Amino acid sequence: MSYQGSFRVWRGDDQSGGLVDYRVEVNEGEVVLDIIHRLQATQAPDLAVRWNCKAGKCGSCSAEINGKPRLLCMTRMSTFTEDETITVTPLRTFPVEKDLVTDVSFNYEKSREIPAFAPPEGVAPGDYRMSQWDVERSQEFRKCIECFLCQDVCHVVRDHEDNKQHFAGPRFLMRITELDMHPLDAADRREAARTEHGIGWCNITKCCTEVCPEHIKITDNALIPLKERVADRYYDPIVWLGNKIRRR
Ligand code: SF4
Ligand code: F3S
Ligand code: FES
Questions:
Q1: How far is CA 201 from its chain centroid?
Q2: pLDDT in the model for residue 248
Q3: Most exposed: 9, 41, 126, 192, by fewest CB within 10 Å?
Q4: Tens digit of pLDDT for each residue in 157-169?
């Protein structure tokens, strides 16, 4: 069974743009990305959209549907009514390149600011040993497909361009947590988490967790534990004393 659906798609570039109305055929079982592809094929051949796997695994097709950050390929048309107008816009937090494609290099810059896994000296890769519990704990974080929906929704940068310089965003604070929890990582991650990557700016709104397509408990399992670790490091009198003595 098919019907003509109403869509409003943002068209434009880094200079100007606006919403354009379209009527597009919708068939049973389709997702929003199918509609965008039909729109390209039948009415708007120059419409720019980024996608790759159409299976919710590459993280490329991130956009906003009715103002909410979503993967276009994982948003079923059956979740809308036939008379609803569906608005598709680019991620708001990143600069637009063209139509639904944004420049997400902010995220790659933040990624590069985090030093890589640093094993202790003298332990060769084949000799790494860690408990199953530690393996499982970081496994959740490694499900991340780098769709950057969490980065897009977080109000710390969504509404405040100036904050981008001082805030890594939930995806990369989660990466720091993963490394800090790794029993073989010898680097001190906590000082940088506080001073360079802005963990203190997160006020636990949990919007990042709500939009994550991999259902990673970003706030509860990464951001809150990182806040606690940073607090332990700086404000726990025993840890503080230990650090002072060690530094001598
Ligand atoms: Fe996407 Fe979730 Fe990874 Fe954020 S943590 S980039 S929302 S998969
Ligand atoms: Fe932002 Fe997530 Fe914290 S949305 S404020 S990073 S809980
Ligand atoms: Fe790969 Fe949507 S196309 S996640």
A1: 17
A2: 40
A3: 126
A4: 999 999 999 999 9
> Could you report the predicted ipTM of this complex, rounded to two decimals?
0.99
Which helix (H) or strand (E) element contains residue 229?
Answer: helix 224-235
pTM over 0.90: yes
Nearest of 228, 220, 236 to residue 137 by alpha carbon: 220
Residue 147 CA to ligand 1 centre (angstroms): 6
The count of C-alpha atoms lying within 13 angstroms of the C-alpha of 62, restricted to the half-sphere facing its C-beta, is 25
Structure tokens belonging to residue 166? 């001082």
Return the best residue to mutate from 31, 34, 35, 58 for the ligand 3 pocket (most ligand atoms within 8 A of CB): 58
d(CA 149, CA 208): 7
Closest approach atom of ligand 1 to CA 151:
4
Task: Walk me through the domains of the chain, giving residue ranges and CATH numbers.
Answer: 2-101 (3.10.20.30), 104-246 (1.10.1060.10)
199 in Cβ contact with 230 (< 8 Å): yes
Scanning the structure block, which residue is given the tokens 């549907």? 65
21-31 residue pLDDT tens: 999 999 999 99
The SS3 call for residue 100 is: coil
> Scanning the structure block, which residue is given the tokens 């499900």?
143
Distance CA 70, CA 109 (A): 23
